[in-house]
Amino acid sequence: MSSTTSNGHGPAGGASRRDFLGLVTGAFAAVGSAAIAWSLIDSMNPAADVIAAGAPMDIDVSKIEPGQQIVVRWRGMPILLVNRTAEMMATLNNKTDVARLADPDSNVNQQPGYARNWHRSVKPELAVLVGICTHLGCLPEYFPKPDPSQPVENWPGGYFCPCHGSKYDLAGRVYKNVPAPDNLPVPPYFYVDPKTVRVGQNPAGISFSLGEVAQL
Ligand code: FES
Predict the structure, then answer these.
(1) Span from the CA of 165 to the centroid of ligand 1 (angstroms)
(2) What residues does each domain of the chain span?
(3) Ligand 1 pocket, mutate which of 130, 132, 160, 161 (most atoms under 8 A from CB)
(4) Does ligand 1 have an atom closer than 6 angstroms to the CB of 16?
């Protein structure tokens, strides 16, 4: 299976949701181009008519390297999947960092019930998030860990929205005192098997739709 993946940050500058649609088009036209900072799993995407219908899509998550993020498109939205390392997961429970979050317990309806936990996911190691800033819809950049280029001091990594400076942790939980009001949404998903995540469909017996979230 050929694929393109990304360990790095999101698009340079403040790409908007609308920009993402153009970015996707460009990505399919020029896979491998260094200009495409948000790499996409091209061969994992279903046919265009399936995408247009918003059908659930299966994603092989077994090849996501530790610390790596991949981005797929579902219903026109960037879906971020990160294989979080133990070190990354530890930041989610760091008391100092948690105290800086606006909604650390995910009380606002931004995720299905099965992601209302400290890691905001089904399995702690795999994050599955909608990569759209809850302020005005820009695309937050991925910072897997602190590094010299981090845009915020004393920040353990996560997502940073360059449009107006909102920041989120590695579970998509928004910080206090930033423009974005809510955590990044979590889409409906479940594990078909240990290697495969189906985005767009809940586990059996559970009803949740992104139409229910407080902010997208
Ligand atoms: S759109 Fe992200 S901070 Fe404004």
Answers:
(1) 6
(2) 17-212
(3) 161
(4) no
For ligand 1, the distance from its centroid to the CA atom of residue 163, given in whole angstroms, is 5
CATH class of 17-212: mainly beta
Q: How far is CA 62 from CA 38, 65, 79, 81, 136, in A?
A: 20, 8, 16, 11, 33
Which pLDDT tens digit goes with each residue over 133-187? 999 999 999 999 877 777 777 889 999 999 999 999 999 999 999 999 999 999 9
Distance 178 CA to ligand 1 centre (A): 9
Distance CA 137, CA 17 (A): 6
Total-model pTM: 0.80
Query: How many CB atoms sit inside 10 A of residue 88's CB?
Result: 23
